[in-house]
Amino acid sequence: MQTMIYDIAIIGGGAAGLMAAISAAGHGAHTVIVEHNSRVGKKLLVTGNGKCNFTNELQEEACYYSADPAFVMSALGRFGHKETVRFFEELGVLAVSKNGYCYPNSGQASSILDILRLEARRLNVEEFLGEHVVSVTKKDCFYINTEKTQILATSCILATGGKAAVQTGSDGSGYRLAKKFGHSVTGLVPALVPLTSEQKDLKMLAGVRTKAKLHLLVAGEEKSVEEGELQLTAYGISGIPVFQFSRTAAYGLSDKKKVTVQIDFLPDRSLEWLQEELYKRKKGRHKRHTMEEAMTGVLNKKLVEFLRKQSGISGTELMETISDHQLEKFTLSIKTFPMNINGTKPFANAQVTAGGVDLSQVKERTFESRLVNGLYFAGEILDVDGICGGYNLQWAWTSGYLAGQAAAMDCKTEYPERSRKTEHPQRSRKTEHPERNRKTEHSEKFHCDQKRRSRK
Hints:
The chain is α+β, with helices and mostly antiparallel strands. It has 14 helices and 21 strands. α1 (15-26) packs parallel to α11 (391-409) and α7 (271-283) runs antiparallel to α10.
């Protein structure tokens, strides 16, 4: 097993890890990323449906979930939306805003990943790819062991992500590492995830998309109201309005509470208007039509059929023969349809993890552990998650930049004697840039004193 020595080792090469590496290296630290995927930034490629909504102009407390909102807003105040846009534009990305949602003008998530990789390369950030971290211990410095390599570093940043979208490499291993250093991890549930239901006949609604207003009830108490395009599926409900409160539903279910979503399928019309309109159709030109025929152009045909069945109305029954009681039941099913929720889709189908490393054990300004000097955290591993709209990426940029900066500025000036580096077949930087590696090979220390003097 070869031994390598760095100022800062970052475990995890996702959005937060890449930002932390660029920030640390930009402040003068000899930095390495250890990533168990075959390349960094895999999850970035699927964000924003492949277009990468990388931040949002609206930044307020309600956009983030955390046990310590003040911690989150303090960090965003130091590196927020404006700083993020400026950062990427300085690297060459042309940012465009669509109703406050910011994207690269290329419309490609790969643009964000590529520009980060180019900047990391320019700053001589090194990478160990395809290597899973087996253990991390702290003695005189951090000892990070993979199956092939031992890395010694003065500081270590855990940017491993959470458990969501495991196919992109997020396997929850960072929580195990944090716990070994004595850190507490709050309850973990999938967030920005579809909800499941045992509602009868849901299969007939598969593929239906409709505007709706959703009320989330946990143990009978209304917790959230969202409006937007609802996606009805064979297993339950999905779409952005569902994602926005899915973490609240997940926590309710984990606490064994009854969770219900009350759906208004016609949010732009009042209950009174709908009652009157259906009565007119029963008495007027639609009296000899079936319910599906009478509701043509009002709601999706599959949805009308589903709600009709739920109301006990026959498919062949004409409007004029439907009782007032059945008509009232049908009306209420359109405006206040209750769907009992029995679960969420698994972490593999979630966009982010709710819960994480307890913020009370992390320093607010630096993201350094309060328990272990030199240990830092960035990104989804922390107990912070955002709603849809670029907020989880903003948290990755914010926490990554601040953690990388702090780790570099506070880095110790003396290191254990460095071992001579040997060839590593999986190391992309070694083979692609031998000149640069020879230059950094003999660098024995990071001169923090000079950096601190420059800040005075």
